[in-house]
């Protein structure tokens, strides 16, 4: 499907009155041959290989061969036509700047915050860590074609505080405005995690999740060095899901897992609030991305009322009620979430951001403006403009 396809042009909305759209959560997966160019020279021969077989394409890496999965590349397909396995040639070439920008134009997107691939699911620490930097360099090059429209998110390892600080400082100097951390810190062998998923390599799961049962935890005051580095570097933290990863490819679990993957992000948010991280670093901002926001107002009321009764025996040192930090420090993105929109004026519901999830399977492309008009029916124009544009700019310090 190209930008000229009737399915795209027919979805366009005339007489749009809500101004620019900043897509708070879009995705960019690099081409599979990227690794051979961006990995350090001595590691390039260990990059994944693509095998073209009669029954489909396969990715061969570190002695394992797996089918080429397409769940992250469904833009332009109706649900009945989704393909979980296929060939590289069947992908929408979202890593080509011309395709990407044409799709944004066709869908009415003015700017996008880009989450993406990396690291490789390697069992070797050197290759695993090197693949983070390879992706960082590639995505920065990709976004350089339209730096006023394409904003990359820097994925960093979180196995060692000093190492992560170095990544943050380097990426901030390169122009990154957002740093993505796993929902929980990683283990010293960063690819190891207790949150394994059958159809994903542990290293890929660890990049999102870390290890909820690991020795290193964000509640540790030693992390203050990282929070200070992030604030001083004028970047924000994003958590792109990860507290619970859906069991992709397992039909009996996928649908019930999906909502739990969203609401599970309450745990890392609570760790930041109740361990007084925002009291010590009031300028620290975090984004809970793709988690949906319909539960934000409920969550805020619940933790505030619970804190009011339980704060004495737990010896809570919070200076303000939890709702204060939800409204000042915590942002969240959603795709289709009218409940969250209707709760936008409640505590915890104010820093919400619309997103398309392009080109993943939940994407609103190519009907994003139609869906915005549907989901924001009856909402004052000023509020619409905040949610589809201004709040993301506020998160990134672009307002």
UniProtKB/TrEMBL annotation:
Signal peptide annotation: none
Keyword Lyase (UniProt): yes
Domain Amidohydrolase-related: 24-398
PANTHER family the UniProt entry points to: 2-AMINO-3-CARBOXYLMUCONATE-6-SEMIALDEHYDE DECARBOXYLASE (PTHR21240), ISO-OROTATE DECARBOXYLASE (EUROFUNG) (PTHR21240:SF28)
Keywords: Lyase
Protein name (record): Amidohydrolase family protein
């Amino acid at each position: 499907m190209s930008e000229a396809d009737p399915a795209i042009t027919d979805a366009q909305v005339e007489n749009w009155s809500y101004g620019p759209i900043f897509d708070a959560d879009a995705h960019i997966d690099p081409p599979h041959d990227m690794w051979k160019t961006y990995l350090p020279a001595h590691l390039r021969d260990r990059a994944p290989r693509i095998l073209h077989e009669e029954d489909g394409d396969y990715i061969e890496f570190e002695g394992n061969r797996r089918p080429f999965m397409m769940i992250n590349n469904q833009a332009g397909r109706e649900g009945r036509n989704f393909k979980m396995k296929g060939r590289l040639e069947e992908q929408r070439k979202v890593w080509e700047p011309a395709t990407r920008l044409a799709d944004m134009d066709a869908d009415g997107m003015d700017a996008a915050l880009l989450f993406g691939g990396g690291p490789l699911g390697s069992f070797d620490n050197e290759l695993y860590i090197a693949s983070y930097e390879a992706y960082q360099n590639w995505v920065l090059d990709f976004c350089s074609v339209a730096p006023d429209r394409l904003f990359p998110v820097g994925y960093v390892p979180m196995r060692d505080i000093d190492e992560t600080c170095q990544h943050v400082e380097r990426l901030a100097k390169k122009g990154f405005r957002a740093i993505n951390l796993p929902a929980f810190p990683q283990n010293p062998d960063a690819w190891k995690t207790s949150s394994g998923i059958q159809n994903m390599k542990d290293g890929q799961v660890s990049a999102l999740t870390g290890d909820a049962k690991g020795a290193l935890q964000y509640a540790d005051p030693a992390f203050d060095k990282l929070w200070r580095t992030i604030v001083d570097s004028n970047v924000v933290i994003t958590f792109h899901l990860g507290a619970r990863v859906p069991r992709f490819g397992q039909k009996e679990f996928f649908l019930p897992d999906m909502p739990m993957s969203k609401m599970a992000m309450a745990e890392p948010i609570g760790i930041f609030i109740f361990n007084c991280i925002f009291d010590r670093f009031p300028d620290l901002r975090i984004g809970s991305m793709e988690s949906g926001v319909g539960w934000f107002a409920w969550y805020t009321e619940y933790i505030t009322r619970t804190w009011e009764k339980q704060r004495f025996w737990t010896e809570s040192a919070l200076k303000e009620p939890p709702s204060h930090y939800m409204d000042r420090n915590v942002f969240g993105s959603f795709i289709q979430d009218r409940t969250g929109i209707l709760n936008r004026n409640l505590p915890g519901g104010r820093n919400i951001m619309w997103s398309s999830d392009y080109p993943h399977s939940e994407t609103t492309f190519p009907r994003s403006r139609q869906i915005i008009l549907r989901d924001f029916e009856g909402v004052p124009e000023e509020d619409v403009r905040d949610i589809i544009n201004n709040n993301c700019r506020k998160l990134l310090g672009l307002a």
